[in-house]
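To whoever picks this up:

The nightly regression suite flagged CGLD27 family protein as changed. Nothing in the input moved, so I suspect the structure step. Input below, exactly as stored in the fixture:
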Amino acid sequence: MNKSTINFCPVPIEQQPINEYEKLKESWLFDWGTLAIGQYSQKIAWVCFWSAILVIPLAMSVFVPQHDWFHGFLSSLVGICLLTGIFISRIYLGWQYIKDRLKSDRIFYEESGWYDGQTWIKPTGMLNRDRLVASYEIEPILARFHKTYGLLGMAISLSSLIWLIIG
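Regenerated output under the current build:
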């Protein structure tokens, strides 16, 4: 085999997993996973703030603040955590999709439209490179989201437990 045969890749450039990764890494919402922990925390705090603006009035309409403010607070906390979790899930799923494409030994791509999909088997060099990127670049991002989910889950669990204890 000559060198041009080895380097040939029929997958359009924008559908190659490594290029999808680069594009995702630079996009507005998905770049949150690549931010320093302080900047990431600020972004999550903003999502929590806007979730609170949506959730607190709803909780106040169900639990009258003068009579049952504590249950209103607990239900607001759960709502904020759920909305934040849903928002983060969108980012997480985008990163997970790219990780799966990078780790796969095959690339599914579309030549000109949705009706003519093809599959191409990655050469060993490309597969090794893609798997390294997935392991060392994307898995830490996903681990950060797992920790965020854990914190949100603990807040929901603690709120629910307090609700059950207080009655």
